[in-house]
Amino acid sequence: MLLSLNCLELGRTSNEVITMCIGKYSEINGVRVNSDVLTVANFKKLLLDEKELQGLTKMDIWKVELDLKSFKDTIYSEDEIKKMGTMMEPAYVLKEYFNDDKKPKTNYIHIFIVPTETSTEVKDISDDIVKELVKPPSKLPDKTSIRNFLNQKPDVKIPLSPANFSLMHTKGNGCISEEERDTYFEKSTKKDCTGLFTKLIGRLIFPSSVGKNEDSFHGFWDDIIKNTILTLGKGVVGLETMAFDRNTNKKTSTGRNRPDLVILVRNICPFRGEEKAENSTADVSKELTDKFKEWTYGDAPYLFAYYAIGQIVTFVLLTESESKNIWSNNKRTRPEVKSETLGDFNLRELSERLRAMNLLRNICRLLPIIVNLCPARDTPDFLTLRRENGTIVELGYHVKKIFKEERSVVHLKEIYATLSQNNVRFTDKLEHCSSHSVHLEPRGLQRKPEDLNELLRALICILTCLKEMHNIKPKPILHRDVRWPNIVLHNDKFILIDFDYATFGSERKGVVKKPLKNFSETGHAPETLTSRHNKKVDIWGVGHLIDSCYIENKPKQLKEFASKCQDKKPKNRPTASNALKDIINIFMEYLPESSWLNQVGIA
Prior knowledge:
This is Protein kinase domain-containing protein. One of its GO terms (molecular function) is protein kinase activity. InterPro entries: Kinase-like_dom_sf (IPR011009), Prot_kinase_dom (IPR000719). Residues 226-603 form the Protein kinase domain. The chain is an alpha+beta fold. Helix content is 30%, strand content 23%. The protein folds into 4 domains: 3-115, no CATH class; 124-381, no CATH class; 384-441; 452-600, Transferase(Phosphotransferase), domain 1 (Orthogonal Bundle), CATH 1.10.510.10. The strands form 9 sheets. The chain has a 6-stranded mixed β-sheet, sandwiched between helices. Strands 2-1-7-5-6 form a 5-stranded mixed β-sheet, with helices on both faces. A 5-stranded antiparallel β-sheet has the order 20-21-22-24-23, with helices on one face. The radius of gyration is 33 Å and the shape is elongated. 35% of the residues are buried.
């Protein structure tokens, strides 16, 4: 024997290596061929005679050098093979690839076989099968029937080539039963899902290995959870823009302000996860609910989530408690979020990984319906922004701002303390701070009003806030940045946020001497940028709110009001008190039956 070559077909693992032993002579089509002149083309004919490669008629072979120890259970793609290997030319003598210092090493893979033609034409129908697997239901299941829905078995089976089907072992440790295998898959020589096998099923059979710390589990969790939703979700109408975000900076406070993994669909997070290593003692289930500050998902009856401790994963349903409609002293009680267990999975076992795949498949079918029931968002549920001035804004369950200079925090502490002492309504609150950061609540929902009703409500809330800010003695507060990006919807009320550029006016006339030269001209009163100014810059901002809110059928008096607020001469603009009266009158004229003014304590 002159050569012993370990060969492996594309899509198979190291457990299916074919060892080809080349002696002094080999028989090719009944002719004895000396190994010294045996060509690569001759060697391919020998490979085609092997039982394990039955069905192949043509192939390319690539010389590689891969240690079997590091290679174990890995499935390489064709592109990866081409990058690491050398294609063996059919006319070349085989020995030339393994002469002298090129001799094949023991316990290594030496040749990759890449099929180029099989005996029958097999069509990859992965895309069609995925669409069948994730067909949406006619309506969203209620909470009493959701478990049964999520455990529904698929109506179609995934066809696999005999080689891939054989990887679903039904004998030995860690195997699945034939019933489990046949629930999801079928062996076929006429149709196949090679694409789906490569992207998803192969990774479920051979997931990434894990270590001791949490980071070492990310690949494992992603193979089973993230990758399943990503692969199957592409077949669902409405999930085309689905995005994933993983928190990789857990050593900072960001981890307390967002889940470890989020899926975003049109800026909404209908699926999230908390993750810990196997040795963690944290109450991960509690983390899923305790981080919630409010339920901002409108009419959606539930969201989906999971928590993982090592390879043990629990999927849960997140729902809003019944306290959501309770009012006390004109204040809405904070809604509690509950979690209900949907199922526990030991993902060490292939059987459990396939069961998790099926549950996630059914979750994918529901995500667009849930998102459609949620209010629209202008910004994602979870996002980190870096402003030009160096400030970092973490948008999560609450808002955290991190500043370069301590004086920015000192300034905000003084502003928010004054707002609190004077009981100014319709603003966010500074909950706590450190030397360089502030923690603000509530975050609210950032979006413009969608109709006249909402626009008038927003104007009433903001003008009430400005009236109370401007009347503070001895020095009024000027916000100076009244724009829609700084207004959020919270519990049926619009609140003013982002007081970074707020300041105190003078005691006598409420005048500020220094202009804000770094402001953009769009959305700010002209005098704010060029000269001394007063409280009327905020009134100009209210007028601009009306003009920059693109709703249909704005009343004539509202347009005239907006023009009056944006008069070039600040002294001609109304005060916040008079402007508020004007807007309340318009509100009562167009919405006379509304009880909203009483609910929010304005009437």
